[in-house]
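Hi R.,

Here's the chain you asked about this morning:
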Amino acid sequence: MTTERIPLPAGPVTLCVVPMPADLNQNGDVFGGWVMAQVDVAGAIPAMRRARGRVATVSVNSFLFKQPISVGDIVSFYADIVRVGRTSITVKVEVFAERNYANPIVVKVTEAELTYVAIDADGNKREVLPEVSSKME
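And here is the predicted structure, written out as tokens:
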């Protein structure tokens, strides 16, 4: 496992958290399930915005743990929509940790792709509404 120094992505961070001791597994690293839950939250944010309403996770298409996360790391989640279907939205989430404050480094710790489905107030699948143009005409 290499610790490659990289910059944080240029786009806006979707979610940023600092894990606490209660989030550790038996080996002293942040529990993978905690990371997966945070990735799901981060991925749902752009999906909800694009769907203009509720979404439900229907698939974790890929999930790769690249490096462990430690207590005190500043963990940033960057989520971008990669595909929009009739009822579904697929989101790529990249996770970076900022660590070692005396000699700061950034490492990519996780990447994942999840698919969400737009749902109505009763939890039934619904169509994703057309994207609204933000341009003034």
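One quick note: The longest strand covers residues 105-118.

Cheers,
M.
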